[in-house]
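Possible regression after last week's pipeline update?

I re-ran a chain I had predicted before the update to compare outputs. Posting the input and the new output here so someone can diff against the archived version. Not blocking, just want to make sure nothing changed silently.
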Amino acid sequence: MNASLKWPLLLAAILVFLDQTLKLWIKTHFALGEHVQLTSWFQLHFTENPGMAFGMEWGGIAGKYVLSSFRMLAIGGILWYMNRLAHGGAARFVLFGFGVVLAGALGNVIDSVFYGLFFDRGLTFSAEYGDWLLYSGVAQWGHGYAPMLLGNVVDMLYFPLWEGILPEWIPFWGGDYFIFFRPIFNLADACVTTGVVLLYASSRHPKNWGTQR
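New output (post-update):
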């Protein structure tokens, strides 16, 4: 391993640890839907996400398999590209950006791969209702609420910074009740977003990416 990857990978490991620590605490101490108001604009609100980041869903069980598989492939691709950039002399700023994205991808993959195997309660897809329903199964490894790759991602960070009725003059949504920021997310989602912003900022200076971009 290239020596310049040591600190970016250490940062990724720390972020994954923090992400999983918070998720496990929420999963084992909160009921689904339970929340704690910490400030007027921030609360811990436990929800489970069977789909993509920020509570979005796609494709039922098949979509979940595709998404989890894609995340695992993406992790391998990120590691390969980080190594390539490191050997090409990329700036540490760029490598740290990829390390943060890597942490986000890995943090949510752990939920999808393992949580359904060892938790006895979570969301499972019901073909009858065409939706994800709360399910309680057997609290035994391999006999939890979902098989490998179908575990749901734990979300808890909720920032309702503003809520109210939108002015009538706003197209489409005028007069509707609106909350900003409505999606509930987790630290891994925040890592992906932050890492992408860092990489975008660094892309404005191509020399930061070394000779192997």
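Follow-up from reviewer: compared with the archived run. The chain has one domain: 12-29+36-209. Marking as no regression found.
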